[in-house]
Amino acid sequence: MTLTLPWQGTGSHRAVDEVARLRHELAGAGHLIESLRGQVDDANAARDRANEKASQYDEAVARADAVVEAMAEMQSELRELRAHLANCEAVTVPPMERDIDPGDHPTVPVDVKSLRERFASGPVVSLHHSPQAAVDPAHVPGWVKPDTDSVELPVHADRLVQGAA
Fold first, then answer.
1. What is the spatial distance between Cα 24 and Cα 78, in angstroms, rounded to a whole number?
2. Tens digits of residue pLDDT in 97-117
3. Could you tell me which residues come within 8 angstroms of residue 91 by beta carbon, excluding any fewer than 6 positions away?
4. How much is the pTM?
5. Percentages of the chain per state (helix, strand, coil), in multiples of 5
């Protein structure tokens, strides 16, 4: 009679077969672990490069801020120097005491009047267009054509007064 013990396996569930299967899985897991370690090393190297670039960026920003600050100081100093130069070169001598070269003639102030003042003083005459205009203010130059298509409207004085009120 043959006695079969429960811990002694038969077929595909034998301990030797199970050990071989586990060793095969362990070898595959070893390759996976080595691959993952390589990826971790690559990721650490990339992180170090990124940190180095970030620190370079921070240094560049600090240098740029220092340059902007120095430029603002230089601009304010330039404004002060220009103002000082303008004050030093300003003409403060009254006109009657200024030295004028004999060949130089001081300019006369331009007479600027508003249109109302110009027309209130009399008709504005241009001798350029009509030489007779200087003699006869009512003269109409020849290049002006008479108005033939207009119609004269009657003017009622009482309506003008009412409209103005």
1. 80
2. 666 666 766 666 666 677 667
3. 98
4. 0.36
5. 60, 0, 40
